[in-house]
């Protein structure tokens, strides 16, 4: 069957992309699509928890919260009210690499969204108060409790990072930060943080949807053009590290968890490299879906792992070797040792047993669907373009990711597994049910 | 040059339209399809009148065990071959169970959708259901529920449901059952549920670029070998409220937060008050700037987030406020929450608040309905609740036209602060004594 909508392997981004740069350094990316009467405004700031010095863990994320609490011409609580009160959805996220802010609006409110973003980029500091900081500090501490402390295995990511990245490395600490550092956060530090990093020349503005490039370029100049360039923004500490890690690391946790669980992890390559594309396909072969090796051999097959809690995935970080994470949880009556031996065997199979055509095609088909799902909304598209503009200097590079995944061969996978997945470079984190010691 | 000081006015709004809907009847069933020009992915959902409400008492979770057993092989191929065939199309099976329906969903690039629907139907209509496989899936589901119930939330949810719907059989138990009820599910229960409810045609929902999809072929794939008439829906359960407020403690030793679930019963989805109730709940606890989130998060800092909402199914409804609050502020957080519910019940909403709620709910119909999956979900709502194809246009207009008087009256009629059940899941040794001020305190039996 032929179809006008057959997925095209030659481009993963079959929509127009237009770019400009304002005199103050703000990069502007526009991708027009008139299908739905909605528009997404997305800002990537090239600052994340990797920029945090010792004693200030969690500050980039806490700062993200402060961005919703009013700015020079936007009163406290008004930001949320104006976006939702005009039909929009909004959020922001912080990770080790960057901080992003985004709102999807009915398209007649494009200008409102740009005004709101410009006001908090150029005018946040006058609105920052001790009361707001104290309130959002408590909110973030509750976020930490809710997401990391009060759920079984919730601290796994907090434990894996220091095992994967040495002291002083920009990825050594988790973005949520420590309670101790959050308690010590003072207002002047946040004012300085904004003045240092929330600069037009440290950001990418992406607009996707029901508008034109000409309209957005003119509005960007109108609202963001007055914001001053910040010279000499200091880079984050260098994240260069060898892959694979030179030695293994292991942590064994006894905690109030319902079943034994294992996380295995390896440092791989930075997101955006050929090596990481290979890892993305390898993780899919290994642990994505019921047809994956982990599922087939441990959840089905040997039946030692719980079928709902087994998988493998990469964490898409771009400024140092990104982690591949493999996890499995023991079925009733199965020991941690049995599960770990099973996991190790499946990991080794990627070196010893070539990936078959069926396995490779399955992985590529799943990744193809995942890619098109990611770009199926204005919001998903905007965030994708913002990422590629920020991290690789070119939003159009996004179009190549899918074809780069599809170009990975079985030989590439075996070679990468040999290089990266050796037990001598493995991080192992285990959980056993019991009283914490 | 400086920042622009004044807020820009909106541009011209494009008229709202839900995607064009096409219906065909073929091969014994109905296909309802929404046209999304240019979408590369397409979604299909086989919607069957086989919700959890059809399960036998004491065997709650039967439908979920069936849903998870469907991929253990079909009459045509074993589980490994099935996984490879479906995932080789880039699709994964998404079976799900709610109170009203059993859904089997797949998404794939448009040209591959027909193959994915054929495989989804193969699993739904002709699963192998080997007794040993079903028993193993059942045991795995018991374990999975124990994993889930180790998190804060599910036990509190079960305690609230048990209290609100205690006299209503299946509705008094969790949607997916609990570890005990699932352990009691037999292979025969699963086979009987499949035989009774999954062999009727049902409805196939499709969302995608219809120019590349053959709806007749999709109908054939979905309905081949099925028979039976649509089932008559059962009547609503009604709204029964207790005569006074009560508090239930679910002990979770060492918990650093208390999980709050405050609720009472409410009308079912067909209520004529659906729009004003939804808007009242949006003002109270739906929007970020809602009364609850503003006070409990943005002023007090007690929580990462608090939500209040009505959830309505074909036969039942309930009002609920849900939050996780720091253990040390459990009583003050409950006090403030009750205060905002009571204020909304007594005084209604203001025009300024309602204006945010109206525009947000109306705008969400465009903003949150961009993907084939979201549109297929919207089609399912039409079928389950017997709504017309132009429903979303009507709903949008009703949101935008709702008045302060209508919404305030809905708040007065459908909030009952003094008859709430307050479920608190937290560290009993720390919070038990302070809960006394909120009314009769009992310990949960979950």
From TrEMBL, chain A:
PANTHER family given in the database record: NARDILYSIN, NON-CATALYTIC MEMBER OF PEPTIDASE SUBFAMILY M16B-RELATED
Domain Peptidase M16 N-terminal: 28-146
The keyword Kinase appears for this protein: no
MF annotations from Gene Ontology: metal ion binding; metallopeptidase activity
Upper classification of the organism: Bacteria, Bacillati, Actinomycetota, Actinomycetes, Micromonosporales
A Pfam short name: Peptidase_M16
GO biological process: proteolysis
Peptidase M16 C-terminal domain sequence ranges: 186-367
UniProt family annotation: Belongs to the peptidase M16 family.
Signal peptide annotation: none
Organism: Actinoplanes campanulatus
InterPro entries: Metalloenz_LuxS/M16 (IPR011249), Pept_M16_N (IPR011765), Peptidase_M16 (IPR050626), Peptidase_M16_C (IPR007863)
Transmembrane spans: none
SUPFAM superfamilies: LuxS/MPP-like metallohydrolase
Keywords: Hydrolase, Metalloprotease, Protease, Zinc
This protein's name: Putative Zn-dependent peptidase
Automatic annotation (TrEMBL), chain B:
Superkingdom to which the source organism belongs: Bacteria
Domain Peptidase M16 C-terminal as annotated: residue spans: 185-358
Any Pfam family matching the protein: Peptidase_M16
Single GO MF annotation: metal ion binding
InterPro entries, per database record: Metalloenz_LuxS/M16, MPP/UQCRC_Complex, Pept_M16_N, Peptidase_M16_C
Domain Peptidase M16 N-terminal: start-end pairs: 31-146
Gene3D superfamilies: Metalloenzyme, LuxS/M16 peptidase-like
Official protein name in the record: Putative Zn-dependent peptidase
Native source organism of the sequence: Actinoplanes campanulatus
